[in-house]
Amino acid sequence: MFRRDFFADRGDFGLPSEVPVFIVGMPRSGTTLIEQIAASHPLVHGAGELKDIAIAAANLPKVLDTETPYPDCLAVMDGETSRRLAEDRLRRLGALAPGAARVIDKMPFNYLHLALIALLHPAARIIHCRRDARDLGLSCYLQNFTDSHPWTTRLEDIGHYFKAYESLMDHWRRVLPLKVMDIGYEALINDQEGESRRLIDFLGLPWDDACLEFHNTRRAVRTASNWQVRQPIYSKSVGRWRLYEKFLDPLKRALES
């Protein structure tokens, strides 16, 4: 359903505000670090992992008065409804951070909802976090998530989930009209200033040196990386999978299948 012409036919949907920014990707891919860097800019507010897009998706069939489930029901959503939903969400973002030029929602799993985001916020910017699949898979496996992610309990399942996620992101790149920037965890570690400047430029904002001192930024961080963003960038997590290589065959087989 989600082809280029689907979005082209709905070019007047939503509201063209540049305030919404979404950081998406797999958990443990550097989303919290990248949000912290961007939120250190005086014109940016990092709102953390908001659930409103997922809630909007779950409620959409009821809003549209249809028995067609999400995401298929997006085909029957009209422009007026899209603008009303966008206005409601922009109002909530404004209440979170009055006067902010950009407000970041860093819910990683919003990558599942980029079609809905495109129809509500056509001027939104999407920051897609990437990381070596072996390091990412290991980190997901070792992390005791507070939310339920059953696919993180078996290395083989993590590999299959990662491949499905990559397939979907490849599709979005081909069809979405949104501005999307890929940023790699390893590239950020190797060139903090260069990648940070590229990030702020993508947000359409002037550079601010506070973004290089992100670990000094005082703001609430409620994810598994809350202690890591209080430290300067370090490289010890890059290539960590090699320490556990003899245990990772199920992950590697799934990634190669």
Would you kindly provide a written description of the structure presented here, covering whatever features stand out?
The chain is of the alpha/beta class and 257 residues long. The chain is built from ten helices and five strands; from the N terminus they run αβαβααβαβααβααα. It has a five-stranded parallel sheet, with helices on both faces. α7 packs parallel to α10 (249-256). The longest helix has 21 residues, at 155-175. The protein is globular and about 55 Å long. It starts with a helix and ends with a helix.
At a glance:
By secondary structure, the protein is of the alpha/beta class. Helix content is 42%, strand content 10%.
| CATH fold assignment | Rossmann fold
**Could you say which overall geometry the principal axes of the C-alpha atoms support?**
globular
Count of extended strands: 5
Topology as a string of helices (H) and strands (E): HEHEHHEHEHHEHHH
- Arithmetic mean pLDDT: 93
Question: How many structural domains in the coordinates?
Answer: 1
- Parts with pLDDT < 50 across at least 5 consecutive residues: none
Q: Main β-sheet, in a few words?
A: 5 strands, parallel
CATH superfamily: P-loop containing nucleotide triphosphate hydrolases
CATH architecture descriptor text = 3-Layer(aba) Sandwich
* Count of individual helical segments: 10
Determine the fraction of residues in helical runs and give it as a percent range. 40-55%
Strand content: 5-15%
- Sheet with most strands: strand arrangement: 2-3-1-4-5
Structural class: alpha/beta
Distance between the termini: 27 Å
